[in-house]
Please model this.
Amino acid sequence: MINRLVILFLLLVGVSCAQKPKQEITTGSNGEASGNSNLEQVNFQMKEFQETVLSNGLRLILVPDQALPRVSIGVIVKTGSADDPVNKLGLASFASTMLENGTKNRSATKLADDFGQIASELGSIAGSDYTYVSSSSISTEKERLLELFADSLLNPAFEQKEINREKAQVLSGIEKRQDNPSHYADLLITKENFGTHPYGHSGSGELATVKSINRKDIQDFYAKYYSPQKSILYLTGAFDNAFVEKVKKTFSVWKGNSVATWASIPFKPTVSEGVKLFTKPELKQAQIRFAERGVKRTDPDYLALKLGNLILGGDFVSRLNLRVRDELGLTYSIHSDLDARMDFGSFDISTFSRNEKVGETIAETKKVLQQFTEKGVLPSELEAAKALLAGQFPAAIETTDKMVHNLLLLRIYGVSDDYLKKFISNLNAVTLEQVNKAIKDHIHPENFKIIVYADEAKVLEQLKTLGKVDVVRVSRKK
Model:
């Protein structure tokens, strides 16, 4: 199975492990950009890549790299849990996972064994806006890799016995959600923040909706949304032109509908009315989440907000961490996140605390957030945030796989490649005034929904001092 953290990496679209910035930046053959500012800059080049469109509408990105005897192949499909019917929540995730579970030519066991014979495996995962399927192997097995990957993507069997097995696993996971307090709190705040919008439901679905999913549902979803016109195929690593032609020939037979995904859905932010407490007896600590509506990935303020988020809570030396964790010792970890998506995203703050400190933790977090939006950031904070992003950036495109992952996401979200090509120069160009205006325009403390997942007996009286408290008792559903 693909590493489930890959979605988190993909959503970064240009940020990875920290690396010290040094000299001037240049880009590769797809265009040049340079940045000159008070930041020292990294001297690097984007790897050359080629892009073409097949006769059936499938886009193909090629990133050759002979440095290692390895080939990776994958596809990103513009469909995800946002396309789930309201009575079939979890369908997109179910369909993507079933690609790993047998084809019309190979049983699930045979498919897994064939991938294993070339030291490989198929990975698939559905996010809210897209589905990602990939595999890799040593270059001497690239012909076999292509055959297996194409069979998995183009000829899924959706056998009933495999559906039954997968459904049992999914239902078991849903039943156990409450046993992972951090994950469950994330699900609760997502639903609280987005409500009935498609982003508000869990990608894995709910007990009733998953139970209702049948083979025809999966077949219909695949037929409707898995199409070359909605997909981007990529190939990276040690390959030659002859192999590229085989890839093109293999996938030129892919047919499918060009159906559009769901349209933007109106979402009106509302003023938060206090704290919603989800209570379960004997929880050892309190999970705390804040969230409000965020921005689309295409929003012109995205980069300014990314810098603002680093300063507020996106880095170890952020304001939230320094105040709530270091100075007051209320938590071991607190962070904020800017999650920009197709329609819009969210701005989140996540932490936890000892039960006896939950009220103080929320109050102090609100103070930091209020000061952040009212007074903005300092010049020194902005320069430090720029230096951090500039230092992280080169690692995001230093390997062919990382670079192509970023290219795929830019295309899914309709963002120009200039985001990568001119990242440092655009970063340097962001002003203090732009960051502070973006913060005021998009971050509104009064609109943040706040949820707590904790034992009511241990935290309710503290929460009442903060205002209205709605209590929801959590029980395991059958």
Observations:
- Residues 1-38 have pLDDT under 50 and may be disordered.
- The longest strand covers residues 285-293.
- The first helix runs from residue 6 to 12.
